[in-house]
Amino acid sequence: MSKINLEAPFTAFRGKICKHSKIIFAQRKGTQYTSQICNPRTKAYSEEELARQGKFKQAVVNANAALADATQKAAYEEAFGKQSRHKTLRGYVIAKEYEKLA
């Protein structure tokens, strides 16, 4: 009897299959997840939501600049070691820069 080797056409999926699809594929830490969008957003973002998004974008820009500067990075690394809430230095710096914008 002959042997058949079946190969999967895709080893991993990410994102949507097409722009009309409501099923999303993602891979996190080696595990493939499939999810479905049940209640897609139908209305435009409010002014408050846009302002919050803009503030977060500015916090990320400021955090990248702070991490590029050696003196600021050293100060943030020292403060990061003393706390236990944030898991990564980048997340800690973004949170602190977001607080400064408030």
Please, could you describe this protein's structure?
By secondary structure, the protein is an alpha+beta fold. It folds into two domains: 11-41, no CATH class; 47-101, no CATH class. It has three helices and three strands. It has helices at 47-68, 70-81, 89-101; strands at 15-16, 23-28, 31-36. It has a three-stranded antiparallel beta sheet with strand order 1-2-3, with no helix packed on it. A hairpin with a 2-residue loop joins β2 (23-28) and β3 (31-36). α1 (47-68) packs across α3. The radius of gyration is 21 Å and the shape is flat. The model has no long low-confidence stretch (mean pLDDT 84).
Biggest sheet record: 3 strands, antiparallel
As for the number of domains, it is 2
**Tally of alpha and pi helices:** 3
Structural class: alpha+beta
Run of helices and strands = EEEHHH
| Proportion of helical residues | 40-55%
Radius of gyration: 21 Å
The end-to-end span amounts to 71 Å
Q: Note the beta-strand portion.
A: 5-15%
Average pLDDT, rounded to a whole number, is: 84
The total of beta strands comes to 3
What is the secondary structure topology, with strand pairs?
Blueprint: E1 15-16, E2 23-28, E3 31-36, H1 47-68, H2 70-81, H3 89-101
Index terms:
102 residues, 3 strands, 14% strand, flat, alpha+beta
Short structural description:
The chain is an alpha+beta fold and about 100 residues long. It has two domains: about 10-40, no CATH class; about 45-100, no CATH class.
